[in-house]
Amino acid sequence: MMRAAPAAALALILAQPACAGDQPLTADTQHGKVRVVTVTAGLEHPWGIAFLPDGRALVTERPGRLRIVGTDGNVGAPLGGVPAVSVTGQGGLLDVQLDPEFAKNQWVYLSYAEPREGGNGTAVARGTLTDRGLADVRVIFRQDVTINGRHHFGSRLVFGRDGRLFVTLGDRNSERARAQTLDSHIGKVVRIERDGKVPADNPFVGRADAKPEIWSYGHRNVQGAALHPATGELWTHEHGPKGGDELNRDRAGLNYGWPLATYGVEYSGKTISDSPTAPGIEAPVHYWVPSIATSGLLFYTGDRFPKWQGNAFVGGLASQQVSRLELDGNRVVREEVLFKGVLNQRVRDVEQGPDGYIYLLTDEDNGQLLRIEPAG
Ligand SMILES: [Ca+2]
To answer: Taken in order 248, 251, 252, 256, is the CA torsion positive or negative?
Structure first.
């Protein structure tokens, strides 16, 4: 008789592409039926995805692994060279992004909860992708406050059109008041050069009371970021407390309000801010009450879904959905909730593949990479 399969063997069985015989899920949308194809399953809490020029994808798993998923859905062994990460609560290995000149330099950026003496903090490392994994790995950014905590690490990585790197951060939950002061990276979006240096045109450069990396402030926990395809501006979204998730047009030097102005309340129901808006504070472009638990942001620009071009797609964790937002300039004019009751999985990231399809990562023990295609 065979012995019971050990856990490692089970993981191996799970980390296979979906069988060709599996019937893909379908979902109705305002613009026709779509198919939800499982590219692969068996990923442990995947967090971020970056497509390589050849169509394969780098995928992070929160417990600290970086893998390559082939176009056939086969999942490679964990790549070497990934920094040690603090796997606690929401912490671990988080986002992955390619350098704008990846074809030339093979540089890959990772964000993660860095283990430190006395706690942890969000960090960004850059390495060179080789056949054996990441080489010449160096840390280019460290959120400057170490917290012994499990929450609100951010963090998405997005390059501006000028080649500067935006890193979105969180307030670490216990430090919300510091989102309003400029003397730390708590509750901020920062902007750095590819080697971590401070761009000379950052909004607070030269101010003695401010960290020069800061791009914008008053953020709670930013887990979605993308460039608007028409304007090239950074847009972000962030988790509200109970209610008050926000989509923001994230501009230099501006205050996005947390915790002085929010549409949310404490989990206990207690008031946080008397008014959801205040002078000097940027109002969100869109907000959600109740919260959908936002993660992952895409502006769709492909040709597989012509009616969705220019729309924003926002993943939902607790809500197990994707929110499709139609924009008129910088205003949201319509929202459609996709995949509610269809996926029944937490959506961690939303990306567009080089093939023009939309890809989702699901935040589950047995997390999946899903491809959304038009059906019929
Ligand atoms: Ca706000």
So the answer is: negative
Q: In sequence order, which residues have a C-beta less than 8 Å from that of residue 148 and are 6 or more positions away?
A: 118, 119, 120
Catalytic residue among 152, 185, 219, 286: 152
Rounded distance from Cα 31 to ligand 1 centre (Å): 31
For the segment 171-223, what is each residue's pLDDT rounded down to a tens digit? 999 999 999 999 999 999 999 999 999 999 999 999 999 999 999 999 999 99
Q: What pTM, to 2 d.p., does this model score?
A: 0.94
Asked if 22 and 35 count as a contact pair (C-beta separation under 8 A), the reply is: no
CA of 257 to the centre of ligand 1 (A): 4
Those residues with Cβ within 8 angstroms of residue 222's Cβ, 6 or more apart along the chain or in another chain: 154, 155, 156, 168, 169, 170, 189, 236, 237, 238
Rounded distance between C-alpha atoms, residue 37 and residue 249, angstroms: 32
| Ligand 1 center from residue 128 Cα (angstroms) | 36
pLDDT digits (tens, 9 = 90+) for 148-163: 999 999 999 999 999 9
**Residue whose token pair is 């590819």:** 194
Pairing mode of beta strands 57-61, 367-374: unpaired
Distance from Cα 252 to the centre of ligand 1, integer Å: 15
- Catalytic residue status for 152: yes
